[in-house]
Amino acid sequence: MTTPLRAMRLCLFLLALAIAYPLLLHASTDWAPIDPAELQMKDLPEQPGAPAFVLFHEEVDNDQQGSHSVYMRIKVLTEAGRKYADVQIQYYKEEFNISDIHGRTIHPDGSIVEFQGKPFDKVVVKSKNLKVRVKAFTLPDVQVGSILEYKYTLRTEGRTVWPPRWTVQSDLFQRKQHYKFVPYNGAIQMAHGEVGMGLAYNSMLPKGSEVKAVRDTYELDLANVPAFVEEEHMPPPQEYKFYVRFYYRRVNDADQFWGEEGKYWNSDMEKFLGKKHGVPEAVAGIVSPGDTPEQKVKKIYAYAAGLDNLTYKPQRTQQEQKALGVKDNRGVEDVLRLRAGDRQEITLLFIAMVRAAGIPAYAMFVSDRSEDVFLKTHLSLDQLDAMVAIVQIDGKDVFLDPGTKFCPYGILDWKYTGTQGLKQLPGGGTELAKTPAPDYTKAIIKRVARLQLTEQGLVEGTLAIGFFGQEALTRRGEGSRTDEVGRSKLMEDEVRSWLPSNAHVTITKPPHWDEVETPLVAEFWISSPMLMSGGKRELLPANIFQFSRPPMFAHPDRKQPIYFEYPSREIDDVHIKLPANLQVESLPANQDVKLEYALYRASRKQEKNEIDMTRDLAIGAFVFSPAEYKGLKSFFDKVKEGDDEQVLLKQVAHAAQN
């Protein structure tokens, strides 16, 4: 289905079809000559020990013909560098096709092995929340010392132009780069019928580099660009790599642009909301006259969350929709009638229903901070990805996310928290605003374990886990993409990851996957070796679910900001009964570490033949500057020290009878 969001996105349509003409670059399979010195290279002086580096990288974008051509030449220096023979081309299947894929491997002796295979489609996981489609292939017979060479062309389908984003820094050192963009030189029709007045771009480039405009063509040449080092727990890396980001424009001033776009967007939203036949009647059947405003909103939210959410189903092609007789939703009345819509349409229906209940409600169009960072000076609505709802209850704004499947009432999916976008205002109009920051009290994992330590050194027993708020939402979303067996495996694999590698984990009580408002609760039987022997004494980890975890921050210094997806809290309550032949000789001291934004507490005590251990870790913020790194690292170092503590047990010759 076509959503109001998709219909009004800043897709740029050509007023006239471009006349096709041959590609400007690499139209044939001819290759540039290889420098013999490059074949013999064994190391990179600028980065000793590098697994590989880019000899030459070229991209040519041409909006006159709707093409994007890429050429790469990579030198493999070590065994680890052979992985660059695996090429993955990211693309949108509905908008692009890929052609002219060629590749070859050149050995140090000059012999050449051509790529003769066929690329294949696959979906890869970029993060636990983001999957993308790629065309993949592997260059043949790659050895240490080989040069890898490949090229391909992406072509757009239809009459849409796609101004490029050049990411000019990667995980490899790049000796030489060349970029070229030929923009469309005719009239550009913007989303609301306006005519574009030219091209603009934002950039972050190495000192001394600049984009040069020559005869309506933009070019960039770079040399010796260092590899980008991606640090653990950092914001979306693409915002910190050198880049150039083009867009077609109609105004130059940012305030004017967002003001005008806000008017267009608001008009589109109200038009969709205004087609509301049947909505008041539906609301009357959901709420009761005696309900408080919050009770009404909660009932309407539950109704909207229960609709068929098409965003989480495979997208139909236009041909499939036509064959099935599926038509575009043109207003909230269509969503109500079909009891189905994508995440944007469901959110708008929720807003319309809340308004019909006499409660103020508004839309907000926000960016997805898992992928990008909103930039006000980038004058393109393409930065905004999703709709959330704002409901006024007792004079306060309550942000809600009915369009995200499994999202409980009262929270937003973390991707839409602490981010910016266009917000409808109560009196009409819009403004650029920010959504609330995520709250650690709405992302909690709680583990309760009742275990027995056997004479053979195994810790066995039951484990109950509760995932609350964002933690439940994330796992329910992952579980919705597989069947019951796959869901159980997801849960078991996660628990197993907390324990030694030879642990046994079996789910005994699966959670209620399809509910929204309840925590995700599951029970397991676990069995894992835990004791480490030292003569007549044994060592038992004081925190069995964290003992095997690596340190949070291994490096002493930091260049990039620190970024967690959301603040969170972990609570453990573990009870371990000892066998008759062991007793406690000493328990680790309790820990209590506090910062303004973080808390770590761990306590251990003995009750007869049982050890009771509790742990509480809470992180109340999610973004930190590099200047705050040392304090944050110090905190997590103390957490690691506490998690590595062990209980000292001693063997007894004659166990006392209970």
Mean pLDDT score, rounded? 89
DSSP summary: helix tally = 11
- Helix-strand makeup class: alpha+beta
Biggest sheet: strand arrangement:
6-5-9-3-2-12-16-15
The separation of the N and C termini measures: 69 Å
| Largest sheet, strands/sense/barrel | 8 strands, mixed
Shape designation: globular
Number of strands: 38
Poorly predicted spans: 1-28
What does the radius of gyration come to? Answer: 29 Å
Helix proportion = 10-25%
Strand content: 35-45%
Question: Your description of this structure?
Answer:
The model is unreliable at about 1-30 (pLDDT under 50). This protein is about 20% helix and about 35% strand. The chain has eleven helices and 38 strands. Strand 5 and strand 6 form a beta hairpin. Strands 6-5-9-3-2-12-16-15 form an eight-stranded mixed sheet, with no helix packed on it. It starts with a helix and ends in a 7-residue tail after the last strand. The protein is an alpha+beta fold and about 650 residues long.
In brief, what are we looking at here?
The chain has 658 residues and is α+β, with helices and mostly antiparallel strands. It is built from eleven helices and 38 strands. Strand 5 (96-106) and strand 6 (112-114) form a beta hairpin.
Features:
single chain; 658 residues; alpha+beta; 8-stranded mixed sheet; 11 helices; 38 strands; 18% helix; disordered N terminus
Question: What order do the helices and strands come in, and which of them pair?
Answer:
Layout: H1 4-8, E1 12-14, H2 36-40, E2 52-62, E3 67-76, E4 86-90, E5 96-106, E6 112-114, E7 120-127, E8 130-138, E9 147-156, E10 160-161, E11 165-167, E12 174-182, E13 188-189, E14 198-204, E15 212-214, E16 217-225, E17 243-249, H3 254-274, H4 279-284, H5 293-305, E18 308-309, H6 318-324, H7 332-338, E19 340-341, H8 343-356, E20 361-366, E21 386-393, E22 396-400, E23 420-424, E24 430-434, E25 443-453, E26 458-469, H9 470-479, H10 484-497, E27 504-509, E28 520-529, E29 532-534, E30 537-541, E31 562-563, E32 568-577, E33 582-586, E34 591-594, E35 598-607, E36 610-619, E37 623-624, H11 629-643, E38 646-651
Parallel strand pairs: 2-12, 18-19, 25-32
Antiparallel strand pairs: 1-10, 1-13, 2-3, 3-9, 4-8, 5-6, 5-9, 7-8, 11-17, 12-16, 14-17, 15-16, 20-21, 20-23, 21-22, 23-24, 25-26, 26-28, 27-28, 29-30, 30-38, 31-37, 32-36, 33-38, 34-35, 35-36
